[in-house]
Automatic annotation (TrEMBL):
Lineage: Bacteria, Pseudomonadati, Pseudomonadota, Betaproteobacteria, Nitrosomonadales
InterPro entries from the UniProt entry: Thioredoxin-like_sf (IPR036249)
Source organism per UniProt: Nitrosospira briensis
Recorded superkingdom: Bacteria
Protein name per UniProt: Thioredoxin domain-containing protein
Gene3D superfamilies for this protein: Glutaredoxin (3.40.30.10)
Amino acid sequence: MKTPATFYHAGCPVCVEAESQIADALDPDRYEVELVDLGAQKDRIAAAEAAGVKSVPALVINGAPFHINFGAPMSALKS
């Protein structure tokens, strides 16, 4: 069974580049990666916050959030 991984970002150029690198870096045989652009999918903000995401970009692997660079706080995505 693959480990779930969700990459949350805001859709900015830096985040899109990070998305590409994350998708390439995680072994597809080990990880089921979901890419979520919170700038375009605002309905997913609550789930990201529930997973412990405080800022984006962030990667949540198996329920544990890992923050990558400080791009934007979650509050900035809500406006």
